[in-house]
Design a protein that fits this description.
By secondary structure, this protein is an all-alpha fold. It is built from 2 helices and no strands.
Length: 89
């Protein structure tokens, strides 16, 4: 398997973050909708949908954070190697 480039990983992280935020927006819209309906069968379905969307949002944002952390670690390692190379006589 080929190693993904920094730019590809950065865009993947951005995409995951955006999708996670989109799910959080949907959750907020569903929460607002709950305020306007009676506690019927639809109420339970909306709560279940909220829970599922929150789980997906957390997974996506966690994955994005992990990618970002890996990118920063890779950059740090590259900088350290450059400093070592520059330190050599």
């Amino acid at each position: 398997m080929t190693k993904k480039s920094f730019q590809v990983l950065a865009y993947e992280s951005l995409d995951n973050t955006q999708k996670g935020v989109d799910y959080l927006i949907q959750v907020e819209e569903l929460l607002q909708a709950l305020k306007n309906i009676s506690k019927t069968k639809n109420y339970r379905e909306i709560i279940e949908e909220i829970i599922e969307k929150e789980k997906i949002a957390v997974e996506l944002i966690s994955k994005a954070t992990l990618i970002q952390r890996q990118l920063m670690q890779n950059q740090q390692k590259t900088i350290e190697n450059l400093i070592i190379d520059l330190s050599k006589p």
